[in-house]
Amino acid sequence: MSTESTIIIRARKALAEGTEIDVHVPDNIENVSFSFADGTTCSSIAEWFSDSRERGLEDIKLSVPEKEIERHPFGAAYEHTDIVCLWKDDKVSRFVRNENWKDGKGTIAFKDTKVKDEKPLEVVEAYVRENTTELVDPLDVQKKIASLQEKRDTLLTELDTQIKVSNATTFIEI
């Protein structure tokens, strides 16, 4: 599993639970850093997540270019993936990965870039598509609710009539 996938899975869990992120970095990676567009740099995943949460991180996604999906349809070895952040102010940012390897050791730097896609709303549309559910109603509950409401209204009308008759009737015992 890629570093990005691990970060995203753990970040989504931490966001849902309101906890801090817990990510183990493989031994062959010496450093993971994140740079925000405003120049702020975080030297660890935990620091980046905490800073992102304070900035209003709402959700996080993995972005894989279509070429990568065509080349590796089952996701086994995506080489170019980005971390896409969806913020509470409806903004989207993409952290692009940059690696440096020397003697089997590596550093990974993620840099925040503004989304400059040909289709800038593609990420948002994908998010909405993934998180939209359609309610299947095999029992046709809406019709049953309307039918029961009609029966209820009829019952209340009949009871009201009976109460009025009962209250208007006077019995005189001799």
Jot down its keywords:
single chain; 174 residues; alpha+beta; Nuclear Transport Factor 2, Chain: A; 2 domains; 6-stranded mixed beta sheet; 5 helices; 6 strands; 40% helix; rod-shaped
Can you describe this structure?
With 174 residues, the protein is of the alpha+beta class. The chain contains five helices and six strands.
Total individual domains: 2
Helix % is 25-40%
CATH class bucket of the largest domain: Alpha Beta
For the terminal residues, how far apart are their CA atoms? 94 Å
At a glance:
The protein is built from five helices and six strands. It has helices at residues 3-17, 45-55, 66-71, 122-130, 141-168; strands spanning 29-35, 41-42, 57-63, 82-87, 92-102, 105-114.
Helix/strand layout:
Elements: H1 3-17, E1 29-35, E2 41-42, H2 45-55, E3 57-63, H3 66-71, E4 82-87, E5 92-102, E6 105-114, H4 122-130, H5 141-168
Parallel strand pairs: 1-6
Antiparallel strand pairs: 1-2, 3-4, 4-5, 5-6
